[in-house]
Amino acid sequence: MSIYFVETNVAEQRALLCSWAERLFVEGRKVQIVVGSTPAAHYIDEMLWAFSQSSFVPHAIFSPEVPRVEPVLIVFDERRIEGFDALLCDSPVSLDFMVLFETAVHFVLRDDDEKRRESRLLWQKARDMGLNPIHVPYVRPV
Length: 142
Prior knowledge:
7 strands, single chain, alpha/beta
């Protein structure tokens, strides 16, 4: 189990999330993206359609009524979908949920003091559980 703590800024978070989704998809992983609202789900859905000129990430917004086979699903809550092994967190989720996945990515928002404090507490809890979280320092986009 790997938990990545990826530093970013609020304005860059979702573009970085899309890059992680693409990377994991190219590796053959099945990815859940957890969002906190319907507008967030639609925004990420649109971004995944258009963020990269060189590739396409097959994805859908999850609905329990309509089974989906896309390798990237956008979900609204801490619902683990069978067969999915990677988690991208657009909104906060519990560490107990993160550990259900082989890979989890939590974004540390450098320019939001409250969210940065929450990330620090999550990091400490992960270390206390012996999970050895992985720090990914901020890299300015080019």
